[in-house]
Amino acid sequence: MDESLASSWEHVEQVIDNALAEDLASSDVTTEALVPSDIEAKASILAKADGVLAGAEVAKEVFKKVDPSIRVEVLIQDGAKVRKGDVVATIDGRVASILKAERTALNFLCHLSGIATETARYMAAVKGLKAQITDTRKTMPGMRVLEKYAVRMGGGKSHRLHLGDGILIKDNHLAVFRSMELGIKEAIERARQSSTLKIEVEVESVDQAREALDAGADIIMLDNMALEEMRHVVEMAGGRALIEASGGITLDNVCSIAEAGVDIISVGALTHSAKALDISLELDV
Fold first, then answer.
1. Which residues of the chain have pLDDT under 70?
2. Regarding the domain with residue range 3-117+275-284, which homologous superfamily does it belong to in the CATH classification?
3. Contact 122, 133 (CB under 8 A)
4. Which of 60, 61, 182, 197 could form a disulfide with 177 if both were Cys (CB 3.0 to 4.6 A apart)?
């Protein structure tokens, strides 16, 4: 298991518990009415599309929480490529328990594998270039740890995990400073006085980027900036700060943006718009 996921496992278990409670897994009236509690069988989790797997251990934990006697064998590890028809895992135990856990387990597995798969597509698009693909904080409430884990399984990196994970001076912060007749320089100076964390500044123009550079920003985020402007800022920075591109990033333009020389490309779509990977469970009775 990924080390960072293991360190957050207590939180992951809470997310799983909430998902099972939401689905009333303990009160599956259909299964309880139709399936005798003592019938046992085997089941297989199957990939129905090509992609990158993420969430296998999470899905396994779902089944174990519903019924600790269920036996789950994960055959393909997170981060690995899967092909249509691959058996991701096998399950052996009470049919009623398998059915109660099925949808919640698949919801995690399909969603997280979709994120990993989309991330892998972006990574392939910038292969051979220095730019690193990262996620953002545009995640579903309660799912951030798992969604960012899925990005890593697809080859991407995490941007800030939360608001305490780095200083990012955005346009609205600067708007407050402008109301006090202060600018980027003063914002960076004040941030330096209160924290030892790296300071990133979001800018919308070459002039703002120059001001942030001169004030000693560690990272400069270019928000929806044109390619030619990005190239200008990269050249102007000359390695004095990391340059990040953000806003409007798609698979169609990510390679061109990477070729502009930026160090980081943050992509909100990795988590907020990734299509779920088609994965199903088939019961063998």
1. none
2. Quinolinate phosphoribosyl transferase, N-terminal domain (3.90.1170.20)
3. yes
4. 182
